[in-house]
Design goal:
Elements (H helix, E strand, L loop, with lengths): L1 E2 L12 E13 L2 H13 L4 H24 L4 E12 L5 E12 L1
Parallel strand pairs: 1-3
Antiparallel strand pairs: 2-4, 3-4
Amino acid sequence: MLITTTNVIEGKPVQEYMGVINAQSIIGANIFKDIFAGLRDVFGGRSKTYERVLEEAKEDALRELAERAQAMGANAIVGVDLDFETIGSGGSMLMVIATGTAVRI
């Protein structure tokens, strides 16, 4: 499955537009991750813990997006957009929403 943020794929014209699809992944941040991230807030630096959680959520959303496109008979997804949000009480959960257009190239 070819997945791209662009609206066209150079050298591969779209034969059929199958429709807009989306998928989301929601991952809870546990107390230990919050503690370590809080230390990063105080001392500065990157939070590798949260970066790994965000990467996992992104990969889950893209995998689900590809599964939905494949179920429709598509072999590519164009115009992919990723949105990242915090939800839950106190922003304790991380959500990634992936949206794109399923196509047959």
